[in-house]
Design brief:
- By secondary structure, the protein is α+β, with helices and mostly antiparallel strands.
- It has two helices and eight strands, in the order E-H-E-E-E-E-H-E-E-E.
- The chain has an eight-stranded mixed sheet with strand order 2-3-4-1-5-8-7-6, with helices on one face.
- The longest helix has 12 residues.
- The mean pLDDT is 93.
């Protein structure tokens, strides 16, 4: 069984979204500059192990807030998989589509977006090989 390990929320105004979630829910939000010049907000909804970045409590997840893009238009959850390449083949064989092919996330792992049969977007996360 592949677990959900991350979420993403789209935002038209990152500063306003940051203030909203920090003030209402107490989330710790950090700006992460991206290689393309954009900013991604890393969201900690729960404490993490500072070395592994894994939540301390089983079943809890962290996520991010992304700027308004042509890709992320609604909340997305990411599923941890052993191999994005293999899962993409399965998704396509079952009638789903690839929205964003596998992408290196600055050495932290790999990420891709796919859709299910209803067009719901799902993130696929693959940890880096050690």
């Amino acid at each position: 069984m592949d677990p959900i390990v991350h979420f993403e929320l789209p935002s038209k105004n990152l500063a306003a979204s940051r203030g909203f979630y920090e003030s209402i829910f107490g989330w710790k939000i950090t700006e992460w500059p991206m290689p393309d010049g954009s900013t991604y907000l890393g969201v900690h909804t729960t404490p993490i192990n500072e070395q592994t970045h894994v939540p301390l409590k089983a079943g809890e997840i962290n996520g991010g807030i992304t700027g308004d893009t042509d890709v992320v238009k609604a909340p997305v959850f990411a599923i941890l998989v052993e191999s994005i390449d293999e899962r993409v083949k399965q998704v396509q064989a079952a009638g789903g589509t690839v929205v964003m092919p596998k992408k290196d996330m600055m050495g932290m792992g790999f990420y891709a977006y796919v859709t299910d049969l209803d067009g719901n977007m799902i993130g696929l996360w693959e940890n880096p090989k050690k």
